[in-house]
Design a protein that fits this description.
The chain is an alpha+beta fold and 268 residues long. The protein has a domain of 155 residues: 4-Layer Sandwich (Double-stranded beta-helix). The longest helix is centred in the C-terminal third of the chain and has 15 residues. The radius of gyration is 22 Å and the shape is globular.
C-alpha cells in the first residue's frame, strides 16, 4: 500500500464551501483537474497520468489506473499539488456547486469508500481513486449512477462534495433505508445497494418521484445529499423554458398579462 501523506485542513463557508489544505514540506494532495481555488508560493502543480495513488507501479499499473478513471467519465489525468518549499504552505479547492464538503478519514471507515462518480474533490496523495461495479443489473440500469461508481481506498483524508445539505447515517445490520437514487453520495462497502420499483403504476406515473428508488441495507455508513446536481440542473432547464428569452413567463397567461400591464408591446 502506498504511503499516505498526513495533511491538515480547514473548511470555510456555508453554502458555497472550499477546503484549505495545509501541507508540510514535501507533502502533497491530489485533485481532479479544475478544482483548485488558490495556492501559496512553494506549491508545485504537476499533472499525472492515472489514479493518483502511486507513481512507481510501472507503465501497466499506471495505464490500468488511468483506464479505470476513463470508465467513470473522468479525465485520464489528475493534478498533484506538492509543497516543494522548506516551510508549511497552503492550497485550496472549491466546491463545484452549492452544498457541503465532507472530510472522510478512510482509516476510520475500514480504508474504503464507494461514492458517486462526481462527488470526489481532493485527497491526500496516496489515496487511490478507482472504480466500483454495481453487482446487480437493476442497480446498474436504474440506479441513477449507472453500473460504475468511484472507489476511494487508502488510510488518508479524502474530501467529497454533497449538494445542498448532507446527512450521515449509520445503519445497523439489516436496517434498510429507501432513498431517491440521486441523493446518494457514498457508502461503506458493507452496505448492500439495490434498486426497487416504486409500486403501483399510478404512483409510478403520477407520483413525481420516478419509477425506482434505491435501498441501502446495513451494516455500514451512508452519506446522503438533499440537492443532487441533476435535480438542480433539471429545475434550471425547466425555468429557462418557462421564462423564455425575454426573462418573463412568456409561455403562460400570466406572462401575457404582465406584458400588457408593463406596457410591453413587442411584436406590434
Amino acid at each position: 500500500m502506498p504511503t499516505m501523506h498526513e495533511i491538515d485542513y480547514k473548511i470555510y463557508g456555508d453554502d458555497m464551501q472550499f477546503v484549505e489544505v495545509e501541507l508540510d514540506p514535501q507533502e502533497a494532495v491530489v485533485a481532479e483537474a479544475g478544482g483548485m481555488m488558490y495556492m501559496e508560493s512553494g506549491i508545485a502543480m504537476e499533472t499525472i497520468f492515472g489514479d493518483g495513488s502511486q507513481q512507481n507501479s510501472g507503465f501497466l499499473g499506471t495505464l490500468l489506473g488511468a483506464g479505470k478513471r476513463l470508465l467513470i467519465g473522468e479525465s485520464l489525468f489528475m493534478t498533484v499539488f506538492q509543497n516543494r518549499s522548506m516551510e508549511k504552505s497552503k492550497v485550496a479547492f472549491g466546491a463545484p456547486y452549492p452544498g457541503k464538503i465532507i472530510p472522510v478519514r478512510l482509516s476510520e471507515i475500514g480504508g474504503e469508500l464507494i461514492a458517486q462518480k462526481d462527488a470526489f474533490l481532493c485527497a491526500a496523495k496516496g489515496v487511490s481513486v478507482g472504480i466500483a461495479f454495481n453487482k446487480r443489473i437493476g442497480a446498474g440500469l436504474f440506479g441513477g449512477e449507472g453500473f460504475i461508481m468511484e472507489r476511494l481506498t487508502g488510510d488518508g483524508w479524502a474530501f467529497i462534495h454533497a449538494g445542498g445539505t448532507m446527512l450521515c447515517r449509520d445503519l445497523a445490520p439489516g436496517e434498510v433505508l429507501r432513498v431517491d437514487t440521486g441523493c446518494i453520495i457514498g457508502f461503506t462497502p458493507g452496505v448492500d445497494f439495490d434498486i426497487q420499483f416504486v409500486g403501483g403504476i399510478k404512483t409510478a406515473v403520477f407520483g413525481g418521484e420516478g419509477l425506482f428508488f434505491a435501498t441501502l441495507r446495513g451494516p455500514g455508513r451512508v452519506w446522503l445529499q438533499s440537492l443532487p446536481f441533476s435535480r438542480m440542473a433539471d429545475r434550471i432547464v425547466q425555468a429557462s423554458r418557462i421564462t423564455g428569452k425575454g426573462g418573463r413567463e412568456e409561455g403562460s397567461i400570466l406572462g401575457g398579462l404582465g406584458n400588457l400591464l408593463d406596457g410591453d408591446n413587442r411584436g406590434r
